[in-house]
Design brief:
By secondary structure, the chain is mainly beta. It has one domain. 8% of the residues lie in helices and 49% in strands. Strands 1, 2, 3, 4, 5, 6, 7, 8, 9, 10, 13, 14, 15 and 16 form a 14-stranded mixed beta sheet that branches.
Length: 212
Amino acid sequence: MTEWEIKGREFGNCNCAYGCPCQFNALPTHGHCHALAVYDIERGFHGSTRLDGLKAAAIFRWPGPIHEGKGECVHVLDRGATPEQRAALLRIVRGEDTEPGATMFHIFVSTCDTLHEPIIADFTFDMDIGARTAHARIDSVAEMRGSPILNPITGAEHRVRIVQPNGFEFFEAEIGRGSSKTMGPIRFELDDTYGQFAEIHLCQSGMVRQGR
């Protein structure tokens, strides 16, 4: 197994209601899951290959709860990466160099019967985690927007977090709402559904704990 580590940011959007029952080991809001996430790697490596400044994304569709499997996935890799960097990124996001169950990369892919060929694309990505705002555009693949949840009475921004000390994706995420449209082999549209804005720090053994 090749050692790797990435530190950066993630914006994710799925079809569940705000809060996403899946985060609490409950069934998805509508009984199935459509989801996508963009990963902005501030610094990272896979073996001797540096991954600083690169981006990747994953688009998923499951006919039922994630743990029941039968899903499909397509990964998107940064066009600005070298062939070596793309190969390294793909091994990471497909969970191929990860201890079983240690990260969301391994867990989600393990529930997919279909892995589409990866797509190479240009990324535009801006996110402010504290403000719960994000905009991601992946040329010819997807567009995503994130914003705060609003109080239905006052219109004020609502702020809430999910903390997962023993999680496999993030330690803490700001929760907001998202809207997305995907193209390519997995197509769907999400409008005003669950959105998460988080820092991620992962390696082949799972989340990198503070003090590592």
